[in-house]
Write a structure and sequence with these properties.
alpha/beta; four-stranded mixed sheet
Length: 357
């Protein structure tokens, strides 16, 4: 164990000590200052155990006995990369079992205590802390143990690593919907509508985050598997820098063009995004809205599409130097290409899973 590892727990421990002592426990009766201090320390202890014991269980399963001594100070995620999907899934399940068991023990110990007393306060705090960690295991949000579980399932089920993120996102959505149904049934049984609302909010959050992960992964794979020339189409239109945008015909407003000055020298390029932005200014000229040549990215045909992604996002247009003429990559057109490629990728993933059944 290193000094840095030990210090990593001091800050959250100090925050918990202050919050429990100043916010939570003062709402309960106190016979003396000593009792208040002991109650504060006991509250930090039960919260600490709620955090550390599931972590220890996961670390021991992932790292074996060699990691047992430093388990409280090791992040499970640092060991998960080298573990098999089955072991990672088992580790997450063990953390959930420990949290659930601790919540049950705390609930049993709290039964019979006087409401408002420190014993009841500390027991309730233990129940809430462990239930919160159990929820973090069940709800598959990126960054939580639940997401590690769906990633492990994806690794087990997907033969192609390129489909793991999409499968994990789909699994996360299915888990969130199932959790909502269970909480809805529990809500009807005990008559507490807040459980159903909690489940709905969890599902909406998971759905949005999982979809964001899927979309980011899709875009990254699309750009990683294409070259600049594959995204470009020939640019044949050439316009004068002094032309007014209001005078352009309908087709000219939806296509890219090179822009030249009075001497015929290349000074910039303009595409649909720039033309839309300038539509509210009737007197605007092409020179006012174009991307100047000094800031315009000119890529080679064989350049990776990922290399021009940032320029495409900021400028909306990138020129590609071909063997005989320039091509242009437009942000709007890339979105169309990405959507078509996403459909093909989805079909390929479905067929790949059907072949492994």
């Amino acid at each position: 164990m290193t000094v840095a590892q030990a210090r990593s727990l001091l800050v959250p421990g100090a925050i918990a000590l202050v919050l429990i002592g100043t916010v939570y426990l003062p709402t309960h009766a106190s016979a003396s200052a000593a009792q208040a201090i002991l109650g504060d320390l006991a509250g930090v202890y039960v919260v600490g155990m709620a955090v550390l014991l599931p972590r220890v269980a996961r670390v021991v399963i992932l790292g074996g006995r060699r990691a047992a001594a430093d388990a409280p100070f090791v992040r499970p995620g640092s060991l998960a990369a080298g573990a098999s999907p089955a072991r990672r899934l088992t580790a997450v399940a063990s953390g959930a079992i420990v949290s659930g068991a601790l919540a049950a023990v705390a609930a049993a110990a709290t039964t019979g205590t006087t409401p408002g007393s420190y014993q009841h306060a500390i027991g309730s705090l233990a129940v809430l802390a462990n239930l919160g960690l159990l929820l973090a295991t069940l709800v598959p949000l990126p960054g939580l143990a639940g997401w590690e579980a769906v990633e492990a399932v994806a690794d087990l089920r997907c033969a192609k690593s390129s489909h793991h993120a999409a499968y994990a996102a789909r699994a996360a959505k299915a888990v969130a919907v199932s959790l909502t149904v269970l909480l809805g049934l529990a809500s009807l049984r005990i008559g507490d509508p807040m459980l159903a609302l909690l489940g709905l909010l969890a599902t909406l959050t998971v759905w949005a985050e999982a979809e964001a992960v899927r979309r980011v992964d899709l875009a990254e794979r699309f750009f990683a598997t294409h070259e600049a020339s594959q995204l470009a189409h020939p640019v044949t239109a050439v316009r004068r820098v002094g032309e007014q945008i209001a005078d352009l015909a309908g087709e000219a407003r939806t296509s890219a063009a090179l822009v030249v000055d009075g001497a015929g020298l290349f000074v910039g390029a303009i595409g649909p995004r720039q033309l839309r932005d300038a539509a509210s200014r009737p007197a605007a000229r092409l020179g006012d809205a174009m991307v100047p040549a000094r800031t315009l990215r000119i890529a080679q045909a064989e350049d990776a599409a990922a290399d021009i992604a940032t320029d495409l996002e900021t400028a909306g247009i990138v020129l590609v130097r071909g063997e005989q003429r320039y091509g242009v990559v437009e942000a709007d057109d890339v979105v169309v290409q990405l959507r078509a490629w996403a459909g093909e990728d989805s079909i390929a993933m479905r067929r790949a899973h059907e072949s492994t059944r």
